[in-house]
Specification:
This protein is α/β, with parallel strands linked by helices. The chain has eleven helices and ten strands. Helix 2 runs parallel beside helix 11 and helix 6 runs parallel beside helix 9.
């Protein structure tokens, strides 16, 4: 008997951190390591991962994803410092992609646009690094912005495939199962055709975030807002944190988001990324659709640190001061005004 086909089409928004400062540091470390090993007569260890190798792994994942299911849909969002860009499909092709989402996706074009879009974004981000006042913020990727853009793309796509009706209006809106209902757009256009069975099938939306830089403490509220919105609308967020060395560095924000949305979170050591190992991880852990996860032995999130991070120091804290205007969190009470929104701090009388 042939295996039954899932009633959900896979829909993935891939958010990739390509911040030039973080990847530039990795490139310098890789060059120094290769030089030392070459002097000792040894081959390159492939550590740490460099940006070119990351893009090769992304290309392999994207090609495999669109090959598994003909009716699948994939967006790629790149984050570089304070800059965010949709690299696939490109801005000029978004409307055509939404209107003809059932057409076959071209893997070759996808790979070309990925390289071109990342190159343009990295150049723009590198140019703006010296122009911002907070260098720590500029060196780390704006993951919150990238995740927000990914959720917006998922919403727009579900609206387009749902005949113009907001797919995130209710949890069952994009799975109406009524093939005769063509919605508002069809009524305006005067189309009398019945919708196809493809259009009646549900979509399984998720976001995969590949992060290489540290968290930005000021983005905590924005990340949590994205997490709560994802939970409400059943969008799973998966996360893969790429460590630069063998330390226990990780992303507390991304781990919390993945745990809240029921996604996977996997921090990879430098050794687990070397010699095309990242490609194997993406294909074996993050490629299988949500419907297959219960049958696979995938990494689980055991302990999650849900403590808030101070906006000024970036440290986790149990007790903190919260601004009642912008909800910024501080380990020490600000003296005159909130550093985030500049709201005046008034003394309370007892």
């Amino acid at each position: 008997m042939a295996p039954s086909r899932s009633n959900e089409n896979p829909l993935t928004a891939l958010v990739v951190d390509v911040s030039p400062v973080a990847w530039g540091d990795r490139d310098l470390r890789r060059t120094a390591s290769d030089r030392q090993r070459k002097a000792a007569g040894k081959a390159s260890s492939g550590q740490p991962l460099i940006l070119e190798e990351l893009l090769v792994s992304i290309q392999a994942f994207a090609s495999a994803f669109v090959s598994l299911e003909r009716d699948s849909a994939l967006f790629i969002v790149a984050v570089a410092g304070n800059e965010v860009s949709v690299v696939y499909p490109r801005k000029d092709d978004l409307e055509a992609f939404f209107s003809s989402n059932e057409s076959k996706q071209d893997s070759g074009k996808m790979q070309t646009l990925l390289i071109q879009g990342v190159a343009e974004l990295v150049a723009r981000a590198a140019k703006g690094v010296g122009e911002v006042h907070n260098q720590n913020t500029a060196s780390n990727g704006a993951i919150a912005s990238g995740l927000s853009v990914a959720l917006c793309l998922i919403n727009r796509f579900l609206v387009a495939t749902n005949s113009g009706v907001s797919a995130l209006h209710s949890e069952h809106a994009w799975n109406r199962g009524n093939a005769d209902d063509e919605g508002v757009i069809a009524a305006i256009g005067g189309s009398g055709k019945k919708a196809s069975n493809k259009r009646a099938r549900a979509w399984s939306p998720r976001t995969l975030v590949i992060q290489a830089s540290d968290d930005r403490p000021s983005d905590y509220n924005a990340i949590m807002n994205c997490a709560f919105a994802s939970v409400k609308h059943r969008v799973v967020v998966d996360g893969c944190f790429l460590r630069c060395d063998d330390t226990n560095a990780s992303s507390a924000f991304l781990e919390q988001t993945c745990d809240l949305t029921g996604g996977l979170f996997l921090p990879l050591s430098a050794a687990a990324q070397a010699n095309k190992a990242l490609t194997e991880v993406l294909l074996s852990v993050f490629l299988p659709p949500r419907s297959c996860r219960s049958k696979l032995n995938l990494p689980a999130i055991n302990e999650v640190d849900f403590r808030a991070r101070s906006f000024d120091t970036g440290k986790s804290t149990n007790i903190a001061f919260v601004c009642n205007q912008c909800l910024s969190i501080f380990e020490e009470k600000p003296k005159k005004s909130c550093p985030t929104c500049l709201a005046e701090i008034k003394r309370t009388r007892h």
